[in-house]
Design a protein that fits this description.
This protein has 12 helices and 16 strands. By secondary structure, the chain is α+β, with helices and mostly antiparallel strands. The N terminus is likely disordered.
Length: about 425
């Protein structure tokens, strides 16, 4: 494992950016006192957070980055540094950031910015037209990205903060990333149910529904404009500049694996941190602005395109203080299987909660061979006791935040015999 070990360091002046893992990667600290001195974190409290993470998924891990220091990295089950599991809906946030870059590269196509109505031939392939629901013509890009476009997704839905439901709900999972299904041209039948996005459940902007097909349409748009897939775009605009190691996308055993806009990125844990660190630094990496700062801010704070639920351009947000124990500037993105990336700019911290079902790690899913088993790591969780909902994900963040302590008082505690 290529880890740069540092035993002593003074406070940094300016932001530090890591080389790729193959060239040394994230800087780390050797002992609890150095971690406390440089980051204000009590490592023992992170151990407690890790124990809780272990109750939530069969496989996984916890990584904590503060002030550019990787102060905690621990795994269990199939989780390990070189594992590249399907991270499910965490991939939605990568799609959103790719769209932000695309807009800056093609300003002539987005003169209205996020107000741009994109159900038009300049943005989507010819087979999209005529539209399956004429009201789609009014959908703005910001609505598409914040799940308020009216495209059918999961229940519950929210209208001005009030919970409701739609019948029928829309497609989800890998089949929501079939272009013809997402664009409402064909239905998908799975088991005894048929899923359809042919009609909007509300007028564009009228309500929030977590609709995987909605964000997948953004990937269809990107492919139509650039001529390449989301995968090739992320490779050139994020993976290479950030120095990712082996990576790819899941759902390779399905047709959705060709251009998976609604999720499935398969990424090493220390490289997920690079993505979070990029956002923490408002789209800047070293001396390059990889993502427009304005877009990063819009994506990670409460959005005018979604007055219905605290979900912005593919990130959960706390701008209005819905969660009292979490800073207002915190944002995060979850993925099926128990994955979650958290960023809190005011605390200068990035957290990665790795999860994953066994099949999310398989070569059959991702096309990437699994690394050899690391016998030095803890085994898988045999009995999961935590129920993964919004409160459980928030609890992990709260536990890590509590590990940031008064340095002087804690130094005395650690130093005493």
């Amino acid at each position: 494992m290529n880890v740069r070990m540092v035993n002593s360091v003074s406070e940094d002046k300016g932001t530090w950016f890591p080389p790729s893992d193959s060239l040394g990667g994230w800087r780390t600290l050797a002992d609890e006192l150095k971690i406390l001195e440089n980051t204000g974190i009590d490592k023992s409290l992170l151990d407690s957070a890790f124990k809780y993470v272990r109750t939530s998924t069969r496989n996984g891990g916890l990584l904590v980055l503060r002030h550019g220091w990787l102060v905690y990295e621990n795994y269990f089950g199939k989780g390990q540094r070189d594992a590249t599991p399907n991270l499910a809906s965490c991939g939605k946030s990568f799609t959103s950031i790719a769209v932000g870059i695309l807009m800056s590269e093609h300003p002539e196509l987005f003169p209205d910015g996020l107000d741009q109505k994109i159900f038009a031939p300049a943005y989507l392939p010819q087979f999209t037209f005529p539209l399956s629901d004429p009201a789609m013509a009014e959908i703005k890009l910001g609505e598409l990205l914040s799940f308020t476009a009216g495209i059918r997704g999961n229940n519950p839905v929210y209208i001005n903060g009030k919970e409701s439901s739609i019948d029928p709900p829309g497609p989800d999972g890998w089949f929501s990333m079939l272009d013809s299904v997402a664009l409402g041209k064909t239905d998908f039948t799975g088991g005894k149910r048929t899923f359809s996005a042919k009609t909007l459940w509300c007028k564009p902007g009228g309500g929030y529904s977590y609709a995987s097909s909605s964000i997948h349409i953004a990937a269809i748009m990107l492919k139509h404009i650039t001529g390449g897939t989301l995968i090739t775009y992320i490779d050139s605009h994020l993976a290479k500049p950030l120095g990712w190691g082996t990576w790819g996308y899941g759902y390779q055993n399905t047709p959705a694996g060709k251009n998976p806009g609604a999720g499935g990125i398969a990424l090493r844990s220390t490289d997920v941190l690079r993505f979070g660190y990029l956002l923490l630094n408002k789209g800047k990496w070293g001396d390059k602005q990889l993502v427009p700062e304005e877009y990063v801010v819009k994506a990670t704070t409460a959005s005018p395109y979604n007055p219905h639920y605290p979900y912005s351009l593919q990130f959960n947000v706390n701008t209005n203080g819905e969660r009292s124990n979490i800073p207002l500037d915190a944002f995060w993105k979850t993925g099926s299987g128990g994955h979650c990336i958290y960023v809190v700019p005011s605390l200068d911290i990035v957290i990665w909660k790795l999860g994953g079902r066994d099949n999310q790690y398989s070569r059959y899913n991702t096309g990437i061979p699994e690394p050899e088993t690391n016998n030095n790591l803890s085994g898988p969780t045999e009995k999961i006791t935590a129920t993964l909902d919004g409160n459980e994900y928030a609890k992990v963040l709260e536990m890590v935040i509590k590990a940031i302590v008064d340095r002087d008082k804690q130094k005395d505690k650690i130093s005493s015999p």
